[in-house]
Amino acid sequence: MEPNENIVIVGGGIAGLSVALALHRLGLKSIVLESSDSLRVSGTAFVTWPNAWKALDALGVGHLLRPQYSRLFSREHEVRCLKRRFLLETLAKELPEGTIRFSSKVVSIQKSGYLKELILIDGSILKTKVLIGCDGVNSIVAKWLTFNPPSFTKRSSIRGYVDLKEGHGLNPEFLQFTGHGFRYGIVPCDDTSIYWFFMLSPFYNKDEEIKKYPKKMKQFVLSNLGQVKDNIKSIIEKTAEEDIICSPLTFRPPWELIYGNITKHNVCVAGDAFHPMTPDIGQGACSSLEDAIVLSRCLAQAFSMSAPKQEHLHENIGTCLKMYAKDRKWRCIDLISVAYVVGFVQQTEGKVWNFLRDKLLAPFLANLMLNKSDFDCGLLRIS
Ligand SMILES: Cc1cc2nc3c(=O)[nH]c(=O)nc-3n(C[C@H](O)[C@H](O)[C@H](O)COP(=O)(O)OP(=O)(O)OC[C@H]3O[C@@H](n4cnc5c(N)ncnc54)[C@H](O)[C@@H]3O)c2cc1C
């Protein structure tokens, strides 16, 4: 007989591990099926806004991360740039042993009465009362919920991470540069390490050679930095090729979330599987942390209701997952739409556009980013 689980999470990225941890904090056991053979730590670093810090505090890991990373910008807003590897390792360490099962790629999902049956790549089968898809932009669970694959923006982003042992000497500020069809940013993580990104507009994105080889990515970025100080150039120069990656920028058109199913019976999605968005307001991972808190609260409610019979528990789960979908839907539609528009404005070239963007829109866009991060997902408590 196949083993039965209460809650199975597909995908051990930021979304999957934070959902598992949030459930654990609420006393619910789950297992995470991850296709890779270890934590997937590619992706260098990313910017975390105040909404992410509220969620990280709710998860009980904020105090473990804060001492490692500099606070950027002003005193009012908590913004830091986190190394992805460190966040994933911190979340994983807080989970009970055996929660994450590596080399466990889910290849098919089937119905089995009230349960969902998952078929893994090695042929093994697992049955579960709740299935949560945290399996990223190419989610098999989102596909099961009949979502289309995300749309490509025809833009890509080259990203890098470098640790300069001698120190970088920069202020803890988010530096952005625009012009000639490019936009790039330099963000200190702490006193020695720096994350940088370089957006490729649709024009340059056609050049497959640039996107294939880190050496070419680095050369391309270096030759398109424009007039910048030598210390900025040397950050790119000193980045090791293995710490440079290029990612296509995709998003889920908002109307798919308006008309589609974020949840169906005992299945739902969270993180990029739910709301892939362009990185222009730096909210993909931050909003995945919000998902984790809201989803876990809803599920904990379903399991806390007394349900002597299987079908009653199934009903409770369905009702509580609908609450999750209702709670998250418009927040995510808003973030996807704003990120897309900001990306469009930032990347569009032309004399008038450049003037409008650099002189008039820049403070507005900066405010918009802060405004979208002004969101409190609440605590891990069930009412
Ligand atoms: C260029 C760029 C810059 C970004 N910058 C920021 C930023 O500054 N701030 C921010 O908040 N966000 C940012 N993001 C977004 C952020 O990276 C994502 O939103 C976040 O990583 C999503 O996490 P996730 O866990 O949902 O998905 P993923 O990180 O993709 O994790 C999915 C996991 O599921 C596993 N998996 C997939 N399929 C299966 C399967 N069938 N079976 C088992 N396992 C499976 C994968 O191996 C993977 O480990 C950026 C994204 C990009 C592309």
Word description of this protein:
This protein has 383 residues and is of the alpha/beta class. It folds into 2 domains: 4-150 and 252-348, FAD/NAD(P)-binding domain (3-Layer(bba) Sandwich), CATH 3.50.50; 151-251, D-Amino Acid Oxidase, Chain A, domain 2, CATH 3.30.9. It has 13 helices and 15 strands. The protein has helices at 14-25, 50-58, 62-65, 84-93, 140-144, 202-205, 208-212, 214-223, 230-237, 254-259, 284-304, 310-347, 351-372, and strands spanning 4-10, 31-33, 45-48, 80-83, 100-101, 106-112, 115-120, 125-133, 151-163, 175-179, 182-188, 193-200, 244-251, 263-264, 267-269. The protein starts with a strand and ends in an 11-residue tail after the last helix. The relative contact order is 0.16. The structure holds flavin-adenine dinucleotide (FAD). Flavin-adenine dinucleotide (FAD) binds next to α1, β3, β9 and α11.
Helix and strand arrangement:
Blueprint: E1 4-10, H1 14-25, E2 31-33, E3 45-48, H2 50-58, H3 62-65, E4 80-83, H4 84-93, E5 100-101, E6 106-112, E7 115-120, E8 125-133, H5 140-144, E9 151-163, E10 175-179, E11 182-188, E12 193-200, H6 202-205, H7 208-212, H8 214-223, H9 230-237, E13 244-251, H10 254-259, E14 263-264, E15 267-269, H11 284-304, H12 310-347, H13 351-372
Parallel strand pairs: 1-2, 1-8, 2-5, 8-15
Antiparallel strand pairs: 3-4, 6-7, 7-8, 9-12, 9-13, 10-11, 11-12, 14-15
Helix pairs in contact: 1-4, 1-11, 2-11, 11-12, 12-13
This protein binds flavin-adenine dinucleotide.
